[in-house]
Amino acid sequence: MKIFIDSGNTDEIREACALGLVDGVTTNPSLVAKSGKPFRQLLDEILAIVDGPISAEVISTHAEGILKEGRELAGIHHNIVVKVPLIPEGLKAVRIFSQEGIKTNVTLCFSAPQALLSAKAGATYISPFVGRLDDISAPGMNLIEDIRTIYDNYAIETQILTASARSPMHFMEAAKIGSDVITAPFSVLMQLLSHPLTDIGLKKFLDDWEKTKK
Ligand code: E4P
Known about the structure:
alpha/beta; globular; single chain; eight-stranded parallel barrel
């Protein structure tokens, strides 16, 4: 399973890269706003840190505007993946991007039929939001299972990118189901790394080592 970091914070992205955890990056308008940086500047900074797919989201809601924004974004660098909202106008644009060889990440997916139709339009990635489904008491991971089954039934190549992951459990479940990619915030990546027995074990080793000096 590939790991993307869901962040607009370049310090976090750099640190996660140093740990060898990052295959790519996802951003969204909320994360860009949180960074406090102009979108283009932020993208350039991320491109300089990560050599992998970097999702950059359009803000237009009509196909014409999505196509214009998406072509501009894709023209910045071959690693840019155009993130498109899962609305009818979005899928119209995705179909054309697919014909033009522009990679897309169809975002805000909350149902299996939406995922199937996005694949049919030619999406490179589909982003089902598991955490936001959990928020409304609808088990998000069930959606990943359903999409995996459907995509496998028809040998669909669209990659499942588990998004809105909020916990190590989301990560584990996504890996067990066979999600192609997961995107997670830096805090979740750090949670995945830590284990109290590792810390206790290391402290004991170092304390014992000190005793050899006496
Ligand atoms: C994915 O591409 C989104 O940027 C992100 O995962 C949304 O996560 P949230 O629901 O925690 O905001």
